Amino acid sequence: MLTVNLNEAKTHLARLVEQAAKGESFVITKAGKPLVKVTALHPPKIDQTHRLGFMAGQIIVPEDFDRMGADVIDQLFNSKA
């Protein structure tokens, strides 16, 4: 894997990013110590994207969902300990 120092990365950033986008990851170092790894991002395939409502009809939310546990919460906050 290619390793470049920070100053070199600043000077050649466009070229380095193009290489990373093609799958050639690289590491940027400062004073000889690795700081970051630059690698390509691959967008998800169309069939991998998440959709709102994808579990519609498979989950039932109770009518009192927003009040569930209210008595316990009230007791915890209002009890004199």
UniProtKB/TrEMBL annotation:
Pfam families from the UniProt entry: PhdYeFM_antitox
Domain of life: Bacteria
InterPro entries the record matches: Antitoxin_Phd/YefM, YefM-like_sf
Family listed: Belongs to the phD/YefM antitoxin family.
NCBIfam families, sorted: phd_fam
Role description: Antitoxin component of a type II toxin-antitoxin (TA) system.
Protein name (record): Antitoxin
Organism: Duganella margarita
